[in-house]
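Researcher: Sequence recovery benchmark, item below. Answer with residues only.
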């Protein structure tokens, strides 16, 4: 009875407060046409709004410059791109795969690394190479929900911009992204022409935004360190569940503010815009080099697990949105595959299949589940990961052929023991 009275009082209080409720204050949104010209904390040209021609042209100009230097200084060397998808706690798969890949002795140095959502948290560490493998392992085997977010109270939610406060996640990002790490990223970009790109979604305009993290790092200012961290946080901020990240921008002396959220809202995974090379003739800059694109999809594509969805609004909405993100990711993978094929890149995709034997996670960041997933991926990669050469759906025999290959690998390993 006391619980019932408490709920009634809470509901009555909320109803009384609603008329006085006001949204959180913010500056006007930046018009989309200015996205590629606006400055962020004194930094210009650090991002690309690729739904606009000017954004594509700016990205191509910067990438062309890097490729020309590579062709001059290291002609004929291979080009390897790595793209890491979203997936929340299932990022443990990608972390395990990268650790095992290092142990196999076949992990290449990537010319470009891209990431969204949980992939954005992994991307800087993957970009800087095996030196940060242990940090990746710690990130995806020793964290739990309290390291990521704090749930807001019912009363606080009414006046907030998300169900949860991501201050813990920001603090964790800040502990990883130090001034020293920023200098290393800047060195790789400026000296070695290696690229690190992270995707966010500008919720005001509905535009996917690609951030050139190397160029941000190269500014080497306290503001650049702060922006680097904020972009990572924004890319991993699921709208509604987590608060968005507000980013200030200036265009022609006027101040604006942008609302950025999870990059997975726009793209679950990306290499680069499909039109960037062929429409301009810059494709010739890639010729004469072996080219490989590697995509890590932190998801279980063919799991037979199922659940009885409760007849509750939030449970139904959550399951529907999960399925939407899954299907959305399928389309993004297909686009990446077509882009890779068009530009002469070999396509290599990693994902979780039914040979991962573990009960579904009990929470968004189930530590036991994440550790098992990490170990599963690390073991596969250490033996020589069986990359898929086409996206699931293009080849109906894909799942069975991958499973058979893994059985052979496991059998060979058992014989050697």
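Model:
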């Amino acid at each position: 009875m006391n619980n019932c009275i408490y709920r009634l009082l809470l509901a009555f209080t909320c109803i009384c407060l609603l008329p006085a409720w006001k949204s959180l204050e913010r500056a006007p949104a930046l018009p989309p046409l200015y996205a590629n010209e606006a400055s962020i904390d004194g930094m210009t040209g650090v991002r690309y709004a690729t739904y606009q021609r000017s954004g594509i042209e700016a990205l191509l100009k910067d990438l062309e410059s890097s490729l020309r230097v590579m062709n001059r200084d290291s002609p004929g060397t291979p080009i390897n791109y790595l793209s890491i998808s979203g997936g929340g706690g299932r990022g443990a798969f990608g972390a395990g795969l990268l650790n095992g890949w290092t142990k196999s002795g076949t992990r290449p140095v990537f010319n470009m690394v891209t990431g969204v959502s949980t992939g954005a948290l992994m991307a800087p560490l993957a970009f800087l190479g095996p030196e940060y493998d242990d940090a990746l392992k710690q990130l995806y085997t020793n964290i739990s929900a309290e390291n990521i977010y704090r749930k807001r109270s019912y009363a606080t939610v009414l006046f907030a911009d998300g169900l949860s406060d991501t201050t813990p996640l920001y603090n964790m990002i800040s502990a990883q992204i130090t001034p020293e790490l920023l200098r290393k990223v800047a060195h790789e970009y400026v000296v070695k022409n290696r690229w690190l790109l992270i995707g966010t979604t500008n919720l005001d305009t509905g535009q996917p935004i690609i951030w050139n993290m190397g160029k941000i790092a190269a500014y080497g200012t306290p503001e650049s360190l702060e922006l680097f961290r904020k972009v990572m946080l924004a890319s991993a901020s699921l709208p509604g569940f987590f608060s968005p990240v507000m980013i200030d921008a200036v265009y022609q002396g006027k101040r604006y503010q942008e609302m950025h959220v999870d990059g997975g809202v726009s793209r679950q995974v990306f290499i680069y815009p499909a039109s960037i090379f062929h429409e301009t003739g810059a494709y010739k800059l890639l010729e004469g080099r072996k080219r490989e694109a590697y995509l890590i999809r932190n998801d279980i594509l063919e799991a037979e697990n199922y659940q009885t969805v409760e007849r509750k609004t939030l449970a139904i909405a959550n399951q529907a949105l999960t399925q939407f993100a899954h299907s959305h990711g399928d389309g993004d993978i297909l686009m990446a595959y077509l882009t890779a094929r068009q530009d002469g890149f070999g396509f290599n995709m990693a994902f979780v299949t039914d040979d991962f034997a573990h009960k579904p996670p009990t929470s968004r960041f189930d530590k036991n589940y994440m550790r098992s997933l990490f170990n599963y991926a690390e073991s596969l990669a250490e033996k020589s990961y069986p990359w898929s050469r086409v996206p699931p759906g293009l080849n109906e025999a894909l799942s069975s052929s991958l499973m058979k290959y893994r059985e052979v690998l496991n059998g060979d390993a058992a014989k050697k023991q």
